[in-house]
Write a structure and sequence with these properties.
The protein is an alpha+beta fold. The chain is built from four helices and eight strands, in the order E-E-H-H-E-E-E-E-H-E-E-H.
Protein backbone atom coordinates (compact mmCIF):
# COMPACT_ATOMS: atom_id res chain seq x y z
CA UNK A 1 0.00 0.00 0.00
CA UNK A 2 1.10 3.53 -0.76
CA UNK A 3 -0.10 6.67 1.04
CA UNK A 4 -0.18 10.02 -0.74
CA UNK A 5 1.96 12.44 1.28
CA UNK A 6 -0.36 15.33 0.36
CA UNK A 7 -3.84 14.00 1.13
CA UNK A 8 -3.19 10.83 3.13
CA UNK A 9 -5.28 8.54 0.85
CA UNK A 10 -3.94 5.02 0.45
CA UNK A 11 -3.61 3.15 -2.84
CA UNK A 12 -2.51 -0.29 -4.00
CA UNK A 13 0.03 1.15 -6.46
CA UNK A 14 2.99 3.35 -5.56
CA UNK A 15 2.69 6.97 -6.74
CA UNK A 16 -0.91 6.44 -7.87
CA UNK A 17 -2.05 9.41 -9.96
CA UNK A 18 -5.10 11.00 -8.32
CA UNK A 19 -6.65 14.29 -7.33
CA UNK A 20 -5.88 15.16 -3.74
CA UNK A 21 -8.83 16.35 -1.73
CA UNK A 22 -11.60 18.18 -3.53
CA UNK A 23 -12.30 17.39 -7.19
CA UNK A 24 -11.29 20.14 -9.62
CA UNK A 25 -14.02 22.68 -10.34
CA UNK A 26 -13.22 23.07 -14.05
CA UNK A 27 -11.36 21.38 -16.88
CA UNK A 28 -8.67 24.05 -16.71
CA UNK A 29 -8.22 23.40 -12.99
CA UNK A 30 -7.99 19.66 -13.72
CA UNK A 31 -5.27 20.28 -16.33
CA UNK A 32 -3.30 22.52 -13.96
CA UNK A 33 -3.39 19.76 -11.33
CA UNK A 34 -1.56 17.36 -13.68
CA UNK A 35 2.17 16.98 -14.28
CA UNK A 36 3.68 20.03 -16.00
CA UNK A 37 5.02 18.04 -18.94
CA UNK A 38 1.53 16.66 -19.64
CA UNK A 39 -0.44 19.90 -19.40
CA UNK A 40 0.22 21.03 -23.00
CA UNK A 41 -1.08 17.73 -24.38
CA UNK A 42 -4.19 17.94 -22.19
CA UNK A 43 -4.85 21.50 -23.40
CA UNK A 44 -4.60 20.28 -27.02
CA UNK A 45 -7.06 17.50 -26.25
CA UNK A 46 -9.45 19.87 -24.47
CA UNK A 47 -9.36 22.34 -27.38
CA UNK A 48 -9.86 19.55 -29.91
CA UNK A 49 -13.00 18.29 -28.18
CA UNK A 50 -14.29 21.81 -27.50
CA UNK A 51 -14.00 22.77 -31.18
CA UNK A 52 -15.57 19.48 -32.30
CA UNK A 53 -18.65 19.86 -30.08
CA UNK A 54 -18.96 23.52 -29.01
CA UNK A 55 -22.64 23.02 -28.15
CA UNK A 56 -21.71 20.65 -25.32
CA UNK A 57 -21.25 21.84 -21.75
CA UNK A 58 -17.77 21.47 -20.30
CA UNK A 59 -17.78 20.16 -16.76
CA UNK A 60 -16.13 17.75 -14.34
CA UNK A 61 -17.80 14.37 -13.74
CA UNK A 62 -16.23 11.52 -11.76
CA UNK A 63 -13.24 13.82 -11.32
CA UNK A 64 -12.61 13.92 -15.10
CA UNK A 65 -13.00 16.57 -17.80
CA UNK A 66 -16.41 15.84 -19.32
CA UNK A 67 -18.61 17.17 -22.11
CA UNK A 68 -22.35 16.71 -21.78
CA UNK A 69 -25.62 17.81 -23.36
CA UNK A 70 -28.51 15.41 -22.76
CA UNK A 71 -26.12 13.04 -21.01
CA UNK A 72 -22.37 12.60 -20.66
CA UNK A 73 -20.80 12.55 -24.13
CA UNK A 74 -17.06 12.06 -23.70
CA UNK A 75 -14.46 12.30 -20.93
CA UNK A 76 -10.69 12.17 -20.63
CA UNK A 77 -8.29 11.61 -17.78
CA UNK A 78 -4.56 11.38 -17.25
CA UNK A 79 -3.44 8.03 -15.93
CA UNK A 80 -0.06 6.87 -14.74
CA UNK A 81 1.22 5.97 -18.23
CA UNK A 82 -1.49 7.11 -20.61
CA UNK A 83 -4.37 9.47 -21.28
CA UNK A 84 -7.69 7.69 -21.26
CA UNK A 85 -10.43 8.95 -23.54
CA UNK A 86 -13.75 7.61 -22.34
CA UNK A 87 -15.95 7.54 -25.43
CA UNK A 88 -17.90 4.36 -24.72
CA UNK A 89 -17.89 0.87 -26.17
CA UNK A 90 -20.12 1.80 -29.14
CA UNK A 91 -17.72 4.53 -30.25
CA UNK A 92 -14.71 2.25 -29.94
CA UNK A 93 -16.47 -0.37 -32.06
CA UNK A 94 -17.66 2.19 -34.63
CA UNK A 95 -14.12 3.62 -35.04
CA UNK A 96 -12.31 0.26 -34.68
CA UNK A 97 -10.68 0.47 -38.11
CA UNK A 98 -9.28 3.96 -37.46
CA UNK A 99 -8.22 2.96 -33.93
CA UNK A 100 -5.95 0.15 -35.15
CA UNK A 101 -2.58 0.52 -33.44
CA UNK A 102 -4.10 2.36 -30.48
CA UNK A 103 -4.86 0.47 -27.29
CA UNK A 104 -8.56 0.27 -26.38
CA UNK A 105 -10.31 -1.43 -23.51
CA UNK A 106 -14.02 -1.54 -22.73
CA UNK A 107 -14.90 1.80 -24.30
CA UNK A 108 -11.66 3.53 -23.35
CA UNK A 109 -9.05 4.74 -25.82
CA UNK A 110 -5.64 4.68 -24.18
CA UNK A 111 -3.04 7.03 -25.62
CA UNK A 112 0.43 6.40 -24.24
CA UNK A 113 2.28 9.57 -23.24
CA UNK A 114 4.84 9.07 -26.00
CA UNK A 115 2.14 8.68 -28.70
CA UNK A 116 1.10 11.58 -30.87
CA UNK A 117 -2.51 12.55 -30.16
CA UNK A 118 -4.59 11.74 -33.27
CA UNK A 119 -6.54 15.02 -33.07
CA UNK A 120 -8.65 14.52 -36.27
CA UNK A 121 -9.73 11.09 -35.02
CA UNK A 122 -10.54 12.40 -31.53
CA UNK A 123 -12.55 15.22 -33.11
CA UNK A 124 -14.53 12.73 -35.21
CA UNK A 125 -15.16 10.51 -32.20
CA UNK A 126 -16.38 13.47 -30.13
CA UNK A 127 -18.75 14.53 -32.93
CA UNK A 128 -20.06 10.98 -33.29
CA UNK A 129 -20.61 10.67 -29.53
CA UNK A 130 -22.44 14.01 -29.55
CA UNK A 131 -24.71 12.84 -32.36
CA UNK A 132 -25.47 9.62 -30.48
CA UNK A 133 -26.25 11.62 -27.34
CA UNK A 134 -28.72 13.78 -29.26
CA UNK A 135 -30.47 10.70 -30.70
CA UNK A 136 -31.16 9.24 -27.24
Amino acid sequence: MWMCPNCGRTFKRTNQNHSCGKAPASIDEYILSQKKDLQGTLVLLKNCIHHAIPEAEETIAWGMPTWKKKGNIIHFAAGKNHIGIYAGQEAVLFFAERLKGIETYKGVIRLKFHQEIPLPLISDIAKWCFEMDQMN
